[in-house]
Design a protein that fits this description.
Shape: globular
Structural class: alpha+beta
Number of strands: 20
Length: 448
């Protein structure tokens, strides 16, 4: 007996994928235009999908593997990501990113396994340092409250036995070139990536073993002994399906009323002139997370493939359960972004923003993934809880192990989580969540 799943929504991304737009034109992969058969179909070409396809190419012998991307690679959330691969606790629902100690120890181990997997791809596929840079990250505080957050987080890291370095205002200025931060915390285990370049180069690297199709969204799935996936112009028959679609797992009918669809917003400058780079000073590449999770994330990157030196700021969050935003949402954050940029970079007064965009996150109320075997030989590797680079990579890896029935200590640890909690009904959910986020942003004060 077969079961048909009609996909209710297609991904819609508003504004340019800034990290992708500053690179040279990307290699094009074909659209699926004729019926084919495969052993495995990975749906989604972001961090989870790329990791799943890569792991299958290593473990599934001579099986035929197909990766389907609904749009162009690196034009969706992967090209809108801020590019932090974070090994340490990064709980967006907490005040200082920290969680319970036992869970954090387990999460650190899992995060580092994902970073190591990404590092292996970076090395094998000859990614330049500015695509995958194991330079660590900073957490910056600009207020007394922010300093208290950093001190609390440092104590938590002490309890976990993790390394870090506390930095004063002068040290933060020496490294970033700006005197906005009163205190900083440096952790060496994070990796800063150019997310769009990473996805592009990883795709090129796996393309010898994986057939990649762009602009080929799945419109429906007919489940049976051999699953049939229908795209606009063709069908694929496959034994196994991995849905690496983050929040759009709900578009396939799974996890109803259990996932939060949060958008965050970013603005990126035009390429800085040599004189502006000199005025700014500091290191050429760095990333600073705010001490308050509702504050402003900042990245400075040096030129890669002719992209130029640039600065990116990211702040503001909105809950949009439709999984879509309009251009109005982006216009609404322009003033906040420009204020945050001006407060941190007075030496760059007059430098305009070239790209502004919104990007989708998927979270669960209890900060757990939407993972597992949903139907026979149909697997979900979704809901990355705001850390798509690492947790996406991890869920893609783990979905393959689960599908191949290759149990391991890492998979057993990854499976130690509850199911995503049921959400409150609408309109209480959206009204309450957005009011709460606006309140927390107000409390963040100067950190925003």
């Amino acid at each position: 007996m077969t079961k048909t799943i009609n996909v209710s929504r297609m991904p819609k991304d508003t504004g340019p994928a800034g990290w992708n737009r500053i690179l040279p034109p990307a290699k094009r992969y074909p659209e699926l235009t004729e019926d084919i058969r495969a052993d495995w179909v990975v749906v989604g070409g972001g961090f989870a999908g790329i990791a799943a396809a890569r792991r299958l190419s290593q473990l599934a012998g001579n099986d035929r593997i197909v990766l389907l991307e609904a749009n162009r690679l690196a034009e969706g959330p992967a090209g809108r990501n801020s590019g932090f691969m974070i090994d340490l606790p990064h709980e967006l629902n907490s005040e200082t990113y920290a969680g319970a100690a036992d869970a954090d120890v387990r999460q650190i181990r899992l995060n580092r396994s994902a970073i190591d997997f990404a590092r292996q791809m970076a090395e094998e596929f000859s990614m330049p340092k500015r695509v995958f840079d194991a330079c660590g990250k900073y957490t910056g505080a600009a207020s007394t409250k922010g300093e208290q957050h950093i001190d609390s987080y440092a104590k938590h890291l002490d309890s976990l036995g993790e390394q870090y370095q506390l930095l004063g205002a002068a040290e933060m200025k020496a490294r970033t070139g700006i005197d906005f931060y009163r205190k900083g915390l440096y952790t060496p285990g994070a990796v800063m990536i150019q997310p769009a370049a990473f996805i592009r180069m990883a795709a090129e690297g796996i393309a010898e073993r994986v057939s990649i199709y762009e602009q080929s969204p799945v419109l429906a799935m007919e489940l049976g002994d051999e699953h049939v996936l229908r795209t606009p112009k063709a069908k694929i028959r496959a034994r196994h399906v991995i849905l690496a679609v983050n929040g759009h797992i709900q578009s396939f009918g799974f996890f109803p009323r259990r996932l939060l669809h949060v958008f965050t917003y970013a603005s990126m400058t035009r390429a800085l002139s040599p004189e502006e780079v000199a005025r700014l000073g500091g290191d050429p590449d760095w990333g600073v997370l705010p001490a308050d999770p509702m504050g402003t994330t900042v990245r400075r990157v040096s030129s890669l493939m002719g992209s130029g030196d640039r600065v990116t700021v990211r702040n503001r969050f909105t809950l949009n359960q439709s999984m879509e935003i309009s251009e109005r949402h982006i216009r609404d954050v322009v003033r906040a972004h420009d204020r945050s940029f001006a407060a941190r970079f007075p030496m760059l007064e007059g430098v305009p923003m070239e790209h502004r965009w919104g990007g989708r996150l998927c979270l669960s109320w209890n900060s757990v993934p939407a993972f597992g075997e949903m139907e026979e030989r149909v697997y979900s590797a979704a809901c990355q809880n705001g850390l798509g680079t690492v947790k996406g990579t991890l869920s893609g890896m783990m979905a393959v192990q689960l599908a191949l029935k290759q149990r391991s200590e890492l998979l057993d640890e990854f499976l130690l989580h509850d199911a995503p909690q049921l959400l409150p009904p609408e309109p209480f959910l959206s009204v309450g969540a957005n009011l709460t986020m606006r309140w927390k942003e107000w409390l963040a004060g100067i950190e925003l």
